[in-house]
């Protein structure tokens, strides 16, 4: 049986973020594949923008007793970059994005994730530039991080989008410089004989507002391509944070493994 290689993680994040921009953008119809079941293309800038919902900013939740704390303001001991010690800086309890993909040492399957993020107020933001990052479940499925308060882009690339697949139900992004929160529930795909029998699904809340509810994913994140599931999909994978050239700030990152009530 051909093993799934985690080199896919680096490739997925690279094409999902740092690759050179093509013909996509707000108001533009790109030369990309059609998204199944919709009249839109991947990264379609003519797709309607999500309705804006003003919020009070981040919903900050202390890690429960059974949570795995990935960042508590002290250090990056739970993380690595390309198998080496993590080098993203920590100052005054804040983790700041720097070159390299930050990857959790521990791997997870079904999981609950809490993360808080901030786009610095002094950043010039335009479309996908200036305030861009992403959190990857299993290192494969991206929930987009972007300064989307007053900043338009293609909807499947806005804050809270399942990048390249599904825009958020609403735009719940707080003003630039304020802290934001994501609360995520993720279920990996079910496999049989090396093939996917049930797709992965995800629920996402931003600042206490539902962006996706048990939304099915069509495959791991891709840039300008139609996502599809690989053979022999892994059962677990890391949490990863993307560096897109922007010094995005993070705090209070924790996860909980989701199991049945009688499982340890």
From TrEMBL:
The record lists the membrane-crossing segments as none
Q: Where is the signal peptide?
A: 1-21
Q: Where is this region: Disordered?
A: 23-47
Q: Which InterPro entries match?
A: AL/BT2_dom
Question: What range(s) does the 3-keto-alpha-glucoside-1,2-lyase/3-keto-2-hydroxy-glucal hydratase domain occupy?
Answer: 67-256
**Which of UniProt's keywords are assigned here?**
Signal
Q: One Pfam annotation, family name?
A: 3keto-disac_hyd
Provide a Gene Ontology MF annotation, just one: hydrolase activity
Instruction: Please give the name of this protein.
Output: DUF1080 domain-containing protein
């Amino acid at each position: 049986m051909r093993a799934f290689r985690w080199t896919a993680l680096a490739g997925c994040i690279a094409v999902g973020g740092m690759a050179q921009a093509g013909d996509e953008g707000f108001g533009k119809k790109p030369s990309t594949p059609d998204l199944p079941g919709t009249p839109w293309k991947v990264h379609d800038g003519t797709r309607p923008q999500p309705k804006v919902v003003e919020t009070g900013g981040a919903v900050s939740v202390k890690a429960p007793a059974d949570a795995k704390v990935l960042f508590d303001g002290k250090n990056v001991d739970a993380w690595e970059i390309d198998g080496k010690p993590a080098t993203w800086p920590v100052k005054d309890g804040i983790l700041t994005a720097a070159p390299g993909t930050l990857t959790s040492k521990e791997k997870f399957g079904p999981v609950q994730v809490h993360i808080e993020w901030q786009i610095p107020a002094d950043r010039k933001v335009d479309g996908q530039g200036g305030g861009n990052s992403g959190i990857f479940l299993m290192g494969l499925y991206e929930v987009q991080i972007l300064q989307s308060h007053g900043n338009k882009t293609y909807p499947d690339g806005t804050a809270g989008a399942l990048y390249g697949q599904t825009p958020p139900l609403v735009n719940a992004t707080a003003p630039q410089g304020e802290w934001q929160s994501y609360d995520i529930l993720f279920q990996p795909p079910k496999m049989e004989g090396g093939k996917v029998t049930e797709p992965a699904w995800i629920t996402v809340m931003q600042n206490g507002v539902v962006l996706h509810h048990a939304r099915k994913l069509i495959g791991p994140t891709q840039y300008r391509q139609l996502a599809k599931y690989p053979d022999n999909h892994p059962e677990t994978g890391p949490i990863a944070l993307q560096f897109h050239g922007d010094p995005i700030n993070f705090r209070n990152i924790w996860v909980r493994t989701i199991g049945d009530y009688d499982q340890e």
